[in-house]
Every structure is written in structure tokens, then in C-alpha cells.
TrEMBL record:
UniProt name for this protein: DhaL domain-containing protein
Matching Pfam families: Dak2, DegV, FakA-like_M
Keywords (A to Z) from UniProt: Lipid-binding
Keyword NAD: no
Keyword Cell membrane: no
Organism: Paenibacillus oryzisoli
InterPro entries for the chain: DegV, DegV_C, DegV_domain_contain, DhaL_dom, DhaL_dom_sf, FakA-like_C, FakA-like_M
Length: 603
């Protein structure tokens, strides 16, 4: 074959994609670089499944190219996934203006795609997929003979790539230590196998090629071996990915972000970009990208929590919450709690609550925004991936969520649990929010950490929910009206009278308005009187104070609550943006765990 058309190249790429999908577990098993999290195979398979599923076979080649480019950007995950994405993106860009490729042009396309893949990595290292790509394309360039067919040339370059793959075992210390080749590089070898096999039916598939090599160790043997010391491998905690519409240029974004972490890979086509970076400040990365574009997708993985799950598990029960649970961040580490962030839409950009959008800047932004931010529940894919990961390491999952009437998160998690394993995944409606939700989770986490059996923990959880209480002093109903948390009639009357209500939730977890005053100082007195009455009837065991950018006001509540109960708050913290956007800046709340069942919530 001396000329390739678009359909032939698409078949070659998709054949390579299918070959990687079939090797997902094997690639996971040897993944120890740059982070030994055992997901290189999963990340590459996710990208390739997206390519296979999303590429639209059309009479118009340009439509196929665009659909493949979109699939690359949407499906790329992790270092290797991002590098592969750029490799295929570059191929698509080269093919856009060329309906057919001669062999010399095919080689040029591969050369440019490999160069762009290397350029996408901020600090490329030898002994990785980049090295194997370089060696492969070098053979294509140097061994090209005009009389030779494409299949023969690809065979010879493939043989060189296999030698290069074996060399990776000696180029990086971590690979030499574990006696494995680079997982991303091996993925590229599998991609080439499918790539070539689509042209030559006699070319051996993966099972035949590696039959005579040492068998793969299982994922448990390599990735989940607790004797491996990974203490030095988490200089940066979060593995982040952002997909965005580009306002400036991808190079400019890379320049601003490079100092915020490591393992940065940036890919794009000039219109959209995607960046992967390990960092300790995902909110700062999001801010930089927002200043240079509009975020359309993001993913943040907590590698410390993943490491704890694999190597340092405290209990046989995993605890999952969502970002509407307000509690100290250190407690999530202490109790190894997994958090699913809700999504917030601010203008054209989407954020992950408490992860890529933080309290210190949110409430100031909220005051001058003319359009009310909106929230949405986590994607089914996010929930499903977390549950499936946890079930490989825990006997049970208890997943506690924001009140059902206030969010679709509970239903989304329940549906995922029913699909996966409803006997081991226990999804619970907290019927509350914020600090009361935090107190419920705290009691549950203590029981889990103490090693109590699942039935006892679930009984205690039900008791905690029934004993919880929260009162919120809201300085304005403006945001609750915009967000639909208060009926238009109630809102109209309250705004006309400039009322400052006290908000709570009833037994079903629905928002209700209790007291209404006309002055901020009156609200403090009114709410404290309500709490005093509650305390006399049903003593407060413990309480917490929360605020929406109102630290000074919260201090006054602390003083009065200490006087009333004789105890300090369990903690004081800010309210999650996903909750605070409805209360507005200046809101203060007191959440309580009572001695007995909270009968007041029944009315």
C-alpha cells in the first residue's frame, strides 16, 4: 500500500484503540510511574473507549476528524492518556487538509505527532512512552525506502519500538526497582499492534507476541503491595485535569500553571485545551485557567486518599459524603472520608465545590454577581468509579448525602448503588445539610473507626439523623429567592418588609422559615432564644458554628453558646459554596446534636 485515505487511517487508529482496551488490567498492573496508583490501563482504556464510541463514521471526512478530536479531549485522563490524546489530535490536525496520504506524508504526520506529544509534557523524562515514540518514529524516518510498502516499514519500526520498551526498565530508577517496563510505553506498543494488524491479518496479536515473556504480575502483587514505600511519591496531593475553551493561548496557560505542581501535560487544538497537573492547589489552577478561558470539564483525584485506601485502610467500612457536608478538612484525613463534590456553574465556567472553588474568594464574588450561580449533582460516572474502587478494598460503603429535597445527589448515588451492589453500598439521606450533616458524619465516622459492625453503625447513623438540628440566620432572602429555595410569594413579602429570617429544615429535610426579624441584631437574639428553648427541652450534646464569610459575627454566637451550654463548639468553619450561595454572605448558623430525638422538626 502506497497511499492511505481517511477511512483506512481511522480503522488503523481504532484497531490500536481496541488493542489497548483489551490490555487494561495488564497495564494497570505495571503502573508505578509517575504515581503508583495502578490506573494507567484504565485511563488509556477510557480514552480509547471514548474514541471508539464517539467517532462518527460519516461521508464527510471533516466530520469524522472533528468527532475524533472531541473524543480525544473529552476522554483523555492521566499522564499517558493526555500524551496519547495529543498524539491522535495531531494526526487528525495533519489529516484535515489532506484527503489522502502518501507514505512520506504518513511519516511526516507521525513525526509531527510524536513531537507534539513530547512538547505537551512540561518536564519530559526519558524511559517513558515519549522515549519509545521517539525511537519508533526515528526508524520510520531513517529506514524509509520509496519502493517499500507501508506494512513492511511499520513491521520494522515496531521491532525497534519493542527494544525501546525493554530499555525503559533500565532508564528510570522506579522501573528498575520494580523490574517492570513503563506502563504508558507498553500501551503504545499495544496500540501499534492494532495499528499494524488492521493492515496485515498475519501480524500477531498481543497474546502471541508476549507469550514467551514473563507473565504479568497481578495488580495486587505490584500495585497493591503494602511493602512498597510510597512516602516520597506524593509531593503533590491532587491529580487534576481541566478542559476549557481557550481565550488566550495554550502556551500562555501552561506558563502560568507550570509552577503550581508537576507532571504537567497540556494538549489542544487551538480552540479547546486540556491540562493535566499534579498540584496541592487545584483552586489556584482553576483560577488561572478561568482567567485565560472558560472551564467546561474538570476532574480532581485525591491521591492521598487513594493511597490510604490501598495501603493504610483504617476500617472495613468506607465512608462517602458530598461537599454539602461542612466539617474540618483535617477530619476527612483523620477518618479517611471520601468526598464527592457537587458542581457549581458561575457564568460560563463550572467548578467543583470545595475543590476548585474555595470559600476565601467565593462570597465576595457572590455579592457582585448579577446572575445567580447554579448547582448540579455529581455525574453518574464519578459516583460509579468511586464506588467500584472502594468495593475492591472495603467490605461495605456508607454513603451519606445532602437532604433529598434539596439536591438530586442522594437519588443519583442510590441509583448507582443499585446498579453496582446494593447489598454492600448503603446510601443514606441525611435529611439535613451543612454543620448538622457534619455532626452526623462525625458520629458515624467515630463508630466506623472503632470497628463496629455495619448493622450497628447504620443504627447509630439513623439515631444521629433523628437527633440533629440546624438554625441559620440569613441576612437577605435575595439568594434563596433566586435559587428557588423560597416560594415567590414568601420571598416577595419578606423582601418588601426587609425581613431577615431564620431558616431550618423539617423532618423530611425541606427548607422552612422559622423566625423573622427586621434587624441583624434582632436575628441574633431571636435565634439564641430558639436555641435556649431547644436546649431546655432536649439538652445539646455538642454543637458547631458555621458562617458564610462572617467570621466576626460567628464569634458572637460562640460567646453566647458557651455561656448557654457550658461547652465550646466542636468546630467553627465556613459554609460550603454550594450551600452558602443560597444564604448569601453574612449568614451564620448553629448546628446541634441533641440528647434525644428532635421532635421540633416534626412540626
Amino acid at each position: 500500500m502506497q497511499v492511505l485515505n481517511h477511512p483506512t487511517l481511522f480503522r488503523m487508529i481504532l484497531a490500536g484503540a481496541n488493542e489497548i482496551i483489551s490490555r487494561e488490567k495488564e497495564l494497570n498492573a505495571i503502573n508505578v510511574f509517575p504515581v503508583p496508583d495502578g490506573d494507567t490501563g484504565s485511563n488509556l482504556a477510557h480514552l480509547m473507549r471514548m474514541l471508539v464510541r464517539e467517532t462518527k463514521w460519516s461521508d464527510t471526512s471533516s466530520e469524522m476528524l472533528e468527532s475524533m478530536k472531541r473524543a480525544c479531549l473529552r476522554g483523555s485522563r492521566g499522564n499517558s492518556g493526555m500524551i496519547f490524546s495529543q498524539f491522535i489530535l495531531s494526526m487528525c490536525s495533519y489529516m484535515t487538509a489532506r484527503p489522502e496520504l502518501k507514505i512520506a506524508q504518513f511519516i511526516e504526520m507521525c513525526e509531527q505527532s510524536v513531537a507534539m506529544s513530547r512538547r505537551s509534557v512540561h518536564e519530559p523524562q526519558e524511559g517513558t512512552v515519549l522515549s519509545v515514540m521517539d525511537d519508533w518514529v526515528n526508524v520510520l524516518q531513517t529506514a524509509f525506502a520509496p519502493s517499500e510498502g507501508l506494512a513492511d516499514m511499520l513491521h520494522r519500526s515496531y521491532a525497534e519500538a519493542c527494544i525501546s520498551l525493554e530499555n525503559t526498565k533500565h532508564q528510570l530508577e522506579v522501573l528498575r526497582k520494580h523490574n517492570v517496563v513503563d506502563a504508558g510505553a507498553r500501551g503504545f506498543i499495544h496500540f501499534l499492534q492494532g495499528f499494524i494488524a488492521s493492515l496485515d491479518d498475519t501480524f500477531p496479536i498481543a497474546e502471541q507476541i508476549f507469550d514467551e515473556q514473563e507473565p504479568f504480575a497481578s495488580t495486587d502483587d505490584i500495585v497493591h503491595n503494602p511493602s512498597h514505600d510510597l512516602s516520597d511519591s506524593l509531593a503533590y496531593r491532587y491529580c487534576t485535569e481541566f478542559m476549557f475553551d481557550i481565550k488566550t493561548s495554550l502556551e500562555e496557560v501552561k506558563g502560568h500553571i507550570a509552577t503550581l505542581g508537576n507532571s504537567m501535560v497540556a494538549v489542544g487544538d487551538g480552540i479547546q485545551g486540556k491540562i493535566h497537573i499534579h498540584t496541592n492547589v487545584p483552586a489556584r489552577v482553576a483560577e488561572v485557567i478561568q482567567n485565560n478561558g472558560w472551564i467546561v470539564y474538570q476532574k480532581v483525584e485525591d491521591m492521598k486518599r487513594q493511597k490510604d485506601m490501598i495501603y493504610n485502610r483504617q476500617a472495613s467500612i468506607a465512608l462517602v459524603i458530598d461537599s454539602a457536608c461542612d466539617m474540618p478538612e483535617t477530619w476527612l484525613d483523620d477518618y479517611q472520608i471520601h468526598r464527592i463534590p457537587l458542581h457549581l456553574q458561575l457564568g460560563r465556567s463550572t467548578y467543583l465545590d470545595k475543590v476548585t472553588l474555595q470559600l476565601d474568594t467565593f462570597y465576595d464574588k457572590l455579592e457582585w454577581m448579577t446572575e445567580q450561580p447554579t448547582t448540579s449533582q455529581p455525574a453518574q460516572e464519578t459516583i460509579t468509579l468511586l464506588y467500584e474502587q472502594l468495593l475492591t478494598h472495603y467490605d461495605h460503603i456508607i454513603s451519606i448525602h445532602l437532604s433529598k429535597p434539596l439536591s438530586g445527589t442522594y437519588d443519583a448515588c442510590r441509583q448507582a448503588a443499585e446498579r453496582i451492589d446494593s447489598d454492600r453500598i448503603h446510601v443514606v439521606d441525611s435529611r439535613t445539610l451543612s454543620g448538622a450533616y457534619g455532626l452526623i458524619v462525625h458520629e458515624t465516622a467515630e463508630a466506623v473507626k472503632a470497628g463496629k459492625p455495619i448493622e450497628e453503625v447504620l443504627d447509630l447513623l439513623a439515631s444521629s439523623i433523628s437527633r440533629s438540628e440546624i438554625l441559620v440566620s440569613v441576612p437577605t432572602l435575595k439568594h434563596m429567592i433566586r435559587g428557588g429555595r423560597v416560594s415567590p410569594l414568601q420571598g416577595k413579602i419578606a423582601r418588601w418588609l426587609d425581613m431577615k429570617p431564620i431558616v431550618s429544615v423539617n423532618q423530611e429535610g425541606q427548607s422552612i422559615l422559622y423566625g423573622k426579624t427586621f434587624y441583624k441584631q434582632s436575628n441574633l437574639g431571636k435565634m439564641l432564644k430558639m436555641i435556649s428553648l431547644i436546649h431546655r427541652r432536649n439538652p445539646i450534646q455538642r454543637y458547631v458554628i458555621l458562617h458564610a464569610g462572617a467570621e466576626a459575627d460567628s464569634a458572637r454566637y460562640v460567646e453566647e453558646m458557651v455561656r448557654m451550654t457550658g461547652q465550646n463548639p466542636l468546630y467553627i468553619t465556613g459554609v460550603a459554596p454550594v450551600i452558602g450561595l443560597h444564604a448569601g454572605k453574612g449568614a451564620v448558623s448553629v448546628a446541634m446534636m441533641l440528647s434525644g430525638k428532635n421532635t421540633r422538626r416534626n412540626t
